[in-house]
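This protein record is not my work; I was only asked to verify it. Where you disagree with what is written, explain briefly why. This is what I was given:
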Amino acid sequence: MKNNTSLFRGVRSSKFRHVYGSPSRREELYDNIPITRNAHDSNFCAANPKFVAIVTEVAGGGAFVVLPINKTGRLDLNTSKVTGHRGPVLDVKWNPFNDNIIASCSDDCTIKLWYIPDSGLSCNLNEWLIELRGHRRRVGYIEWHPTAENVIASSGFDYLVMLWDAGTGQILNTIDCHPDIVHSLAFNRDGTRLATTCKDKKIRSIDPRSGLVVSEGICHEGSRSCKVIYLDNERLLTTGFSTYSDRQIAIWNHTDLSEPLHRVNIDSSSGILFPYYDYDTRMVYLAGKGDGNIRYYEIVDESPYIHFLNQFISGCPQKGFGMMLKRGCNVSRCEIMRFYKLHTTRNVCEPISMIVPRKSDQYQHDLYPDTAAPVPALSAQEWFNGISKPPVLMSMKTGVSVKTHKPQAFVSNEATRNDTNYRMKFAFLSKETVPDYRPLDMLPEIEKNQKTQVNQNMKFQQIQQKLSNSLVGKFTNTTDGDEECNMKENSNSNDIMKNEYQMKKAFTRQCEELNMLRKQLAHRDRRIQDLEDLVSTLQSQLKVQRLQ
């Protein structure tokens, strides 16, 4: 018996051991998308619970298409695109705190923020919310801060990493410690550290507020591109190539990057490995460019720190991947992750769901701990002044934001009731935070419009209350013989009230879109005025030079 039991000593117990990838049916694909042919090593795709954005080919500049998440099927050739860049788009990222705002960087040395209405684009969008100018060469990668509102990190081919306040358009900090092109950048869980990999084969852990390099070391010996992600606030995972061109992954502690905690050889393929990490399940997904498979691993706290689980195998090679936020996953299917795969040989974007097989169709608490909510923990200035906070969390079951992460352990019924009451107190935190890009000269007019809208709402509520009171009075004063007739009138009035409520909701939505268009027009006018001032200044300088 001793010999038989020793054969099974190496089997690990894990609830994610049987995770499998589920490809989509044909009608669930995004078809006929002119996916970009750019050779830049980026994902070219970004997804959130509302939209999926895909970088496309367009003559004379850069563009990307934004589709509502449910708009699957064959895409029309004349589908509206975001076409404001003058060069190819190299990277796109959705705002983690506002599902309607997306950032893009381009070959034209700029970063631009765009507002996408809930219904999607009805025409080509070339008016941006704000433009960030500072890089002298093309901008290759962008990354949103995980806890601070409107903070973006960008890396360009000028060897610079810049931290921006997207609300004001100002540069918070410029990091110039890299002697060559930056291949990737990533924030840790609370945004207090920024990790980068560079063409000089080094990995660096940087304090993004001061720009000081806390630690650095040789990442992978190969000459190909390396990628980095944070696993928590201290540990890093990198992908790269060995001296003999074998693909590798390595685990690091960001306080000492001289030697990795663990290094694993994967295979001998030539495609760059892109890592994707899920903080909630502590699973890492590896997808290589040109590969057809997705490997996934589980992260643990003890050596060797990473364990292979399984892989999803497909015969179609991939060009890029978009990773869905956890709050966009389908909990009824036990879906713990969803990827949007861009095919290399076809103009197709294919959703791939990673599913844990469970017999019960009830909500699985052990699969869905509290995840990051679309609520910033602090403002850009608070973060830059030295304040650090963990991300605000929300329940995947109720959608209510909470402040702290509850350990996934057995709790009594009393503790469950107390936790529910605690979440109800903070229900207001689940409201979406919209960044304020209003120019100062428009504030009086905007406040006046807001007051007018509040007055209209109060009048509507008063009329609704009078109508309901009159209906109640009529109902009480009627005789038994007229009771059935009054009930019909009451139902008709309820239908009228529902229609009025829908009209009010539609009116409010139209007002929001109108305000956003006004902001865009004001931004365009301000930009025109700046250009006119620049032209007049240049003309005056030219006259002075002629006189001399």
User: Anything to note?
Assistant: Confidence is low (pLDDT under 50) at residues 1-9, 403-438. The chain has five helices and 33 strands. Residues 483-547 form the longest helix (65 residues). The first strand starts at residue 20 and ends at 23.
